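Replying to the earlier thread about multi-chain prediction with a worked example.

Input:
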Amino acid sequence: MTNSPVLEVDNVGLSFSGRRILDGVSFEIHGGEFTGLIGSNGVGKTTLLRIILGLQRPDSGEVRVLGAPLSPRSRSLGYVPQKVVIDPDIPMRARDFVALGLDAHRYGFARRTAQQHELVEKMLHDVDAERFADHRVGSLSGGEQQRIFIAHALISQPKLLLLDEPLANLDPKSVQEIVALLHRVASDHQVAILLSAHEMNALLPVMDRIVYVTDGRAASGTTDEVVRSEVLSKLYGHHVDVLKLHGRVLVVAEPGRDNEDIAQHPTLTVD
Amino acid sequence: MNAVHIFFEPGFFTSSPVHVALVIGAVTAVASAVVGVFTVVRSQSFAGHALTDVATTGGSGAFFFGISPLVGFIGGGVIGAGAMDLIGVQRMRSRDMATGIVLGSATGLAALFLYLDTTKSATTGATQQILFGSIFTIDPSTIPLVVILSALTLAVIGLIYRPLLLSSFSAELTRARGINLRGVGLLFMIAMAVSVGLSSIAVGSILSTALLIGPAAASVRLTNSLRAAMVLACVLGVLATWLGILFAYDSFYWIPSSQGLPVSFFIVSLIFVSYLISGLSVVRRSLGWLTANRLPTGSTPALTSKVEV
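Result:
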């Protein structure tokens, strides 16, 4: 891990028609770190990722990638978008979609070199997707598609990989597999990871840092620094308890408060 | 009568209108097939059909003002593509609405022009020619223009091939790569308008949807590779067009004292038959070499059956 940050989010704020979406969000990500962007649905996680990608301009604050102000053409960012629905009628093999990650922004026909074909094979191997490399992308399961999208994003060798809710809609086994896979590629490819999720427990074993978002405000640090009653109560603006049970974390509001606001609510019903 | 005449009625190989028809038919079928594969992949068949209606408006308007119908077909289509882009065909949610609005108003205008055309020329031939084509009456001098426009359409598709492909999967991913999503989408719509205009002179503006969608829809069922699908769509499109021309020519001799049956009917029927055949699993299996769906060892065949739904 290096000391110069891969990503600096500096006091970013954004309003939509009078509603504050993000309010003074600041955090840094360093090389090879695994960071979870945690918060319930609608707190501004996707908006924050869109700002980092340069798809949305913030009202205030600044985002720097590798020390330089953001450029949407930045090759140093890899991106896995939320919920991509792919029609099984599309005649495109998984390996071709991974290869498209190399040069989708280029105009003209692709003339890929032997080296590039080797790289595609290596990526398919790294995400454990060789089995279904020749199947249509649209015919793959959710977990299989995630692997292909991760390989598509990683093949251009970015320094930072952004993933928007990659674990949503996956079965628990696939969640574990994808988390382990991301942890492995982060160190193998020396890529920092920023992953948004509404549920943090699956990420606890691999997260180096956490950015906890609620109502457009964020607290960041290591999991132990952030996921504490004092810090989260301040962030929510009312008292919440943080319970640690068998290596899992539950964030619970005081009686009478609506637990719907709380990112970890789904675990309360699951467990 | 020699053996050749069983399939080819006398004069087929020496008739100059037949030569022109074969050339125009093949060139427009190739442009339509390549654009058609992307149309199917991008689920823009409805937009493609709307462009045929706008081409009808352009073609009937051109007929009324005495301009070349080809110019009218293509001009109408390109204006329609621009209008659909302005209304918001690129945004998934407003895509159907934008298409529907342009389709509706253009068809209304076409009704006016076709009425004026028939009253002006005192014949219903204009309507028949614009809507359903008249490939045997094409002026040979239009061949160079048709070839150039087809080549340009293919060149545009070649140029935007990869950004267009990525944008067919995910708009967000495309924007995040710094690709001008709207520009790429608009260029594709224009390419689609030109190819629809071109096939309008062959099979008529209304039936150009069939040439755009049919061969592409059949070929994407038969292969897992986009490029193979494009080649296959070209082969199917050209075969259907040529066989259609042959049958229409022969039909002069089938029924005594008849005028012969319309080419468009045969071309569209053959495309439909090829689509039906492409659904047969035996055809898909025997085309296995094209599907590039090699099963790695240790994989179960059951996994691939998901593809063939």
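The first strand of chain A starts at residue 5 and ends at 16.

Feel free to reuse this layout for your own posts.
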